[in-house]
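Lab notebook, bench 4. The sequencing result for the construct came back, and we need a structural model before the next group meeting so we can plan mutations. Quick request posted to the team channel:

Model the 3D structure of this chain.
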Amino acid sequence: MVAEEKYEFKPEAKKKIAILGAVGIVLFILGVFLAMNSGAGHEGEHASVQAMSKLVASTEQAASAEGQVAAVAEGHHGSPAWLKRVYASLWQNNIYFAGLGIIGLFFVAIQYAAQAGWSVPVNRIALAIGQWIPISGILMLVLWFVVKADVFHWTHPDLYVEGPNFDEVIKGKGGYFFWPLQSGGFPLFFILRMVVFFGLWYLFYIWIKKEMLAEDINGGTAHWTKARSLSAIFLVIFAVSSSIAAWDWVMSIDTHWYSTMMGWYVFASWFVSGLAAITLVVVFLKEAGYLKVVNANHLHNLGLFVFAFSIFWTYIWFSQFLLIYYANIPEEAVYFVNQMNNSPYSWVFYASLIMNFVFPFLLFMTRDSKRHLVMLKVVCIIVVLGHWLDFFNMVTPGVVQKDGGLGFLEIGVTMVFLAAFLFVTLNALSKAPLVAKNHPMMGEALNHHI
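Done. Here's the predicted structure in token form:
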């Protein structure tokens, strides 16, 4: 029998989160002021187009005129650069934190579908993180209507009619965004996908959570069996929806660019970030005296997951990059040209590789390193930050081009999102026991040893 543990969301913790959010707001305002007065906000679209053209021409000798036009077409919208930075940061952070919430549910579903026993003491942590799903869904829908003209080039109606801005390539993709309506109008199909995906994810979250909590009251195996069936169905739906979501919310920012591996790539970055976030919460709870049933063996498994899927992310990254680099097709190569040769994306590009592969690979290579709280904390913080940088480079270059930056503005927005995310997660943790009381595999979890 496991003693009941309940997390207490103390006023001190709430105060720290409020301070984090307040500091984020101050930094955001300061960042906007600095960006508005840096001169970047007064750049005309001709300067942006010229810079992009030179970038492609100087770095990709094989780039044809058609490829350069495609790249240039991404490079201008009407808003000033500082406002584009705001929009890009809002969109990037919402995608990133939405991924953490979705992976919280995904982690629980994997454990139930695989009939895993070791993870029983940490499943409630992942479940609490999943509470962010409905909030991120609402934010995603609202933000899209705010940022659409500056973040998504394909929303401009003049691209679909004969004229100086007509784009044959984007017109060919119109059905994917606008069906059944006319291309260049309201993207009904795009919005429906967004609503359906978040609706399904949250629906399965509610169903699985209901069975998990009912298990505490009724015991037996009926709720566990039902949760396992729901998890298996969710995993199939998630496999399809997460890939399409990556195409919609990330890849379509660079409308002319495409990668057949983008769905896998976004999932890999989401998954590693989510695993690191779950591990961090477990570590901080252990340090606060909670989760007494979690021992070094459970921590080892969490560290092993972070280590393994950091390698998986690197494999996907390398496969995607190598194929595009070797093929040297202008419409594809320009995506990495912009990241590797354009400040501030160049240092982020290499820092992301170091933080997301080199550090977890070297620091988690030994068995003991995955069993110590301090090492887990250090590596997982690096991984969480590293994949935030990864999403920064997925979103910002296609929106802001050469006028992008990583300063107080971006840090402030991230701190506000982090404060809200922590509040929702910790509040969810306080609403139910930290560890399942009547889980049929609790015995296996208590005797877990590797």
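Residues 40-77 have pLDDT under 50 and may be disordered.
Will bring this to the meeting.
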